[in-house]
Write a structure and sequence with these properties.
Pfam families: ADH_N, ADH_zinc_N. By secondary structure, this protein is α/β, with parallel strands linked by helices. It is built from 15 helices and 17 strands. β16, α15 and β17 form a beta-alpha-beta unit. The protein is globular and about 60 Å long.
Length: about 400
């Protein structure tokens, strides 16, 4: 039997690569004949993983992390018809049965059958059904015929693997953020956050034809990278109000579309610099988005935040100026991205050179054994997206 190793959360601020069980085609005590086992080709570190590693969720020690998975099929269940051994596939981070009412509507991020506690599930994530994560050498994927996206040409896919590995989460999430914000040809867009999801959203806005893509952040290194592929940027540490900085770029202090790629661990700026302010981005969104505009929130907000400074925030209750959003007739779009809604189209965009997402998010490939170093570097704010190569299969 092959051995397996995975990245485990062992306590706040700490992960470790440990030997873990080799996956089985099983769900508890019963066979999972609709599943497959993958040899992982690429698995990425996500900002959502960092929330858990920082101790800002109720994640239990020992959780095997990782929901951004690309791999080769090495074993299939009896009921798998269309996926074959040897296929190279992208795994949506949402686990979906394909059979419930929500899945039939395309709402695969809130499948009703894969999590006993609430709608929606994901690999290696707190409160998301207890599924084993994919920052490992091997992983089991259920409902394979429904969930998996097969790459049509394996050799071509390996040549573009650093782009295609983004299809499991970050690129569809950024694209969904842009679509839900109403981005279209000629749009003026503000993206809060220049981390990997923010950069993926920016690249997606360009793909959709936005006229101006403005990215705001406190991290100048990340902003410099956003400028490298054509974004305008706002450094929130310079003391100038955001509205004024937007007016300097587009002539008026408002935008058509707003995308929140920060989430609940947001920090204040200006007079509130250095203070954690979990609602600041949402309130900023309502202030600078034009009346009738759309506000998209792919940034993560949680129901429980044990590390929050305020008691209300520990229960996911935030102080937002909802009356302002109501008065301006804003539309708010939240929740997990339904990856399957977009991943095939985005695969085609990658394969036909319409988007260079690996460059946009500044990919760096690391070994599985260097995962802890990758987490530490990512947490320090480097302008990179770390891709773990467990088997040394990626040419770089």
């Amino acid at each position: 039997m092959c051995k397996n190793h995975g990245v485990s959360y062992v306590g706040p601020g700490e992960v470790e690569v440990l030997e873990i069980d080799y996956p089985k085609l099983a769900l508890g005590d019963r066979k999972c004949e609709h599943g497959v086992i993958l040899k992982i080709v690429a698995t990425n570190i996500c900002g959502s993983d960092q929330h858990m590693v920082r101790g800002r969720t109720t994640a239990e020690k020992g959780l095997v992390l990782g929901h951004e998975i690309t791999g080769e099929v090495i074993e299939i269940g009896r009921d798998v018809e269309f996926i074959k051994k040897g296929d190279l596939v992208s795994v949506p981070f949402n686990i979906a049965c394909g059979r419930c009412d929500n899945c039939k509507k395309g709402l695969t991020g809130i499948c009703l059958n894969v999590n006993g506690d609430r709608p929606g599930a994901a690999y290696g994530y707190v409160d998301m059904g207890g599924w084993i994560g994919g920052q490992a050498e091997y992983v089991m994927v259920p409902y394979a015929d429904f969930n998996l996206l097969k790459f049509p040409d394996k050799d071509q896919a390996m040549e573009k693997i650093l782009d295609l590995t983004m299809l499991s989460d970050i690129l569809p999430t950024g694209f969904h953020g842009a679509v839900m914000a109403g981005v279209t040809a000629g749009s003026v867009v503000y993206i809060a956050g220049a981390g990997p999801v923010g950069l993926a959203a920016a690249s997606s806005c360009q793909l959709l034809g936005a006229a101006v893509v403005i990215v705001g952040d406190l991290n100048e290194q990340r902003l410099a990278h956003a400028r490298s592929f054509g974004c305008e940027t706002i450094n929130l540490t310079n003391g100038i109000p955001v509205q004024e900085q937007i007016a300097m770029i587009v002539g008026i202090p408002e935008v058509d579309c707003f995308i929140d790629c920060v989430g609940f661990e947001a920090s204040g700026h200006g007079d509130s610099a250095g203070k954690e302010m979990p609602a600041i981005v949402l309130n900023q969104a309502m202030a600078i988005t034009k009346a009738g505009g759309q506000i998209s929130i792919p940034g993560l907000y949680v129901t429980e935040d044990p590390g929050a400074k305020e008691e209300s925030a520990k229960q996911g209750s935030l102080k937002i100026r909802f009356g302002l959003g109501w008065a301006k007739s804003h539309s708010f779009h939240t929740g997990q991205t339904p990856v399957m809604k977009y991943h095939k189209q985005l695969m085609n965009a990658i394969l036909h050179d319409k988007i260079d997402i690996a460059k946009a998010v500044n990919v760096e490939v690391i070994s599985l054994q260097d995962a802890a170093k990758g987490y530490a570097a990512f947490d320090s704010g480097v302008a990179k997206k770390f891709v773990i190569d467990p088997h040394g299969l990626i040419a770089h």
